[in-house]
Amino acid sequence: MTTVQGHCDPAFAAVRDVFARNFDEGREIGAAVAVYAGGRRVVDLWGGLADRRTGREWTEDTPAFGFSCTKALTAAAALLLAERGAFAWDDPVTGWWPEFGAHGKDVATNEHLLTHQVGLPAFARPVTAEEAADADARAAELAAQEPEWKPGTAHGYHALTYGWLAGHLVRHHAGMPAGEFVKKEFAPDLDLWIGAPDEVIERAAKLTNVRGVQNEEGPRAVADDALLTRLADAYLDTGSRMNRALNNPSPGKGGFNNPVVLRAGWPSAGMVATARAFGRFYADLIAGRYVRPETLREGIRTRVDGEDLTLTVTSAFGLGFMRPSMTFFTPEAGRGSAFGHTGAGGSLGLADIDAELAVAYLPNRMGDQLSGDLRAYRLVEAAYASL
């Protein structure tokens, strides 16, 4: 039986119980969870193995890969730049990126880049991990590409290309890569990186897929079998928009354990962090330490809500942040003011600006959902119930 380590305020014992039960039920290999309430760290737990192959244990300072949880960091960076007057959300992208106007994309606004509306959910050709490390080249490639729908007329999850679109917005106006700007402005003293140093990569948790008890009832808690079948068919169809968006660029040998990917720091899926640091980011964000409260509320205001042309289910987004929907499940108490982002495999970052709650969960056992899973939902549910 896995021993859960760390600190948990007695008032939040339900979170510890859920975290421990996930291990007892065989749903985890290694994981960490952190909860902040009213700016105070009330849960800081970890357990299991950071590396199943070697038996290395998960420790207090073990960082883990957060997949698309990264998008919230890039979104916050864009919010900060907009607050400083670098650009306006309704201005055309071509005002600072003239090349982006190719193939009728001149109608795209800066808002469209962060709300998955520009019609570039996937690269038109296979891209390698090594090619993806050249952010400027990939941005230029997307700028020259024909959109799959007219920008602003629909939304479809830009699973990986978001990093070279929203990330390029940050890169251009900050004068440095998005990951560097995030580190400078949000995380100079936190164990959080988009583009991790080699020593961090060396001690990071290793992602793994293991069949067996995992998240079988998770999807069925929110979707019927017909929908699940449609999702599975779309994901497995190599020609579908979903498959193309989620699997290109390829992470290459070793998957998302590949140092080439972790070192490059894709602004869509490149965060390596401890749950403690990731939760601290969200706690500081809702406390007004990065941007003004009114800026954040504008950033999390729902801009698109409905059918997602990539994921084939409904999704909802503010300016880069997920809002409650089929792709971002929240308890009833959080459906008005919760925001954040899920990551493939089960990772989650969530904050609630009204409840003053922040939750960060990073596992290394890959879940079977495209976006979040039951392990994360149970933790968030317990956190809300403990307030």
TrEMBL record:
It comes from the Bacteria. GO terms for molecular function: hydrolase activity. Keywords: Hydrolase. The keyword Calcium does not apply. InterPro entries: Beta-lactam-related, Beta-lactam/transpept-like, Beta-lactamase/esterase. SUPFAM superfamilies: beta-lactamase/transpeptidase-like (SSF56601). The keyword Hydrolase applies. Residues 19-382 form the Beta-lactamase-related domain. Pfam families: Beta-lactamase. PANTHER family: BETA-LACTAMASE-RELATED, BETA-LACTAMASE-RELATED DOMAIN-CONTAINING PROTEIN. This is Serine hydrolase domain-containing protein. It comes from Actinomadura gamaensis.
